[in-house]
Amino acid sequence: MNEWSYTVKIWAIRKREGRKHAFQLRWKVGTRPHSESFLTLGLAESRRAQLITASREGEPFDVESGLPKSMIVKTRDLSWYQHARNYIEMKWTDSPASTRRTLAEAMATVTPALVKDTKGMPDARTVRTALYSWAFNKNRWEEEPPADVARTLDWFKRKSLPTSALSDRLRVRAALNALSRKLDGKTAAAGTISRKRAIFHNALEYAIEAELLTENPLTRIKWKAPEKVDEEVDPACVPDPKQAGKLLAGVREQSARGRHQAAFFGCMYYAAARPAEVIGLRLSDCDLPRRGWGVLRLHDTWPRSGSSWTDSGEAHEKSGLKHRPRKTVRPVPIPPELVAMLRWHVTAYSTAPDGRLFRTSRGGLIQDTGYGEVWAEARRRALTAAQLGTALAKRPYDLRHAAVSTWLSSGVEPQLVAKRAGHSVAVLFRVYAKFLTDGDEAANAKISARLQGPQG
């Protein structure tokens, strides 16, 4: 580890007659003296100016070598390509598969902008495949890549800028502009840009820890994303209770696969559960009384990230609830309608050997492609021709939005809605803001009644 000091004294250059390198620069860092000899006076003055500038700008100096931090960084420099791989390796072990994919996507987007020149760079799609699927996927580092991928990665090893070059603000601005674009050159979604920028920022912070940079250049750049992040749910996507009922009926009326998945979609609508939370739901997680309300205890998610990104080699990876500590359990009261659906499902299909309620014909986890097909057919059966061309209930996830909006419009306190949906209250207000205005008239009436006071 380096010992740093801000106490620096630099003397004038002295000439020592009779020596080849006659011009000697002497300075002291802390109590440690240092010297360096040069062939010409100009070279000595240049180095002295570097040291004086670093000292005046408040840089710490390494006591052992006597050099300012910026010069130490350059002696340890790595290419951005290698640093990005080091960053991926550092994050890999403690990151779920879905996060690994997000990290790789960010690095694959920004790395092509951080090269010395673009002469000989392969086409954008080849570059994206090589970087995303190979360079920044640690699970494949021991595999032999295809020839075109190997050539592409060799090109980046040769052409990648040194990480220290990111002290140049224009280089960093180019990287920011790159992460705001999709592969086809169009502007990426605001949320995607925000996530990638955050990862890029974190990778630069890691460069500071590795002493490849002295400060994070992003803090010195005034850069605005092409569009503001809008997290609010669009009401046009959310089915009302009558439409949701028709959609669930459209699921049941299909083949045996549809009937098997009816309660799966029911959990999204009646319990506001995320699809990944329902996939691994077990009978032991459910209280299903013969009458009245029941309870689901949600504590796992099974997001599908792809087998090449998980440690197990399986497409899905088990993890805790989203944005919650690993052992958090979220109890959600469920109405008699869902209790009846789940009781019927257990009677008709029993459970998998591990107690899971929903499974494929081979006993595996339900795939998003499979239930996506069922949902698409349910829309065709339940919606009018005009509605089919809109965003109404376009995704199964819109059932969760429908559940939350129904709770809010029913007058359930936002704090309780947030708790059942697995949100913070702040996120609930931000995401479902448009649904919180439905009660304005009732609220206004209550305020008016209070202002008028008792009539006497």
UniProtKB/TrEMBL annotation:
InterPro entries in the cross-refs: DNA_brk_join_enz, Integrase-like_cat_sf, Integrase_catalytic, Integrase_recombinase_N, Tyrosine_recombinase_XerCD
Family the entry assigns: Belongs to the 'phage' integrase family.
Key word DNA-binding present: yes
Region (Disordered): 304-329
Domain Tyr recombinase: 233-447
Keywords: DNA recombination, DNA-binding
Name the UniProt record assigns to this protein: Tyrosine-type recombinase/integrase
Keyword Lyase: no
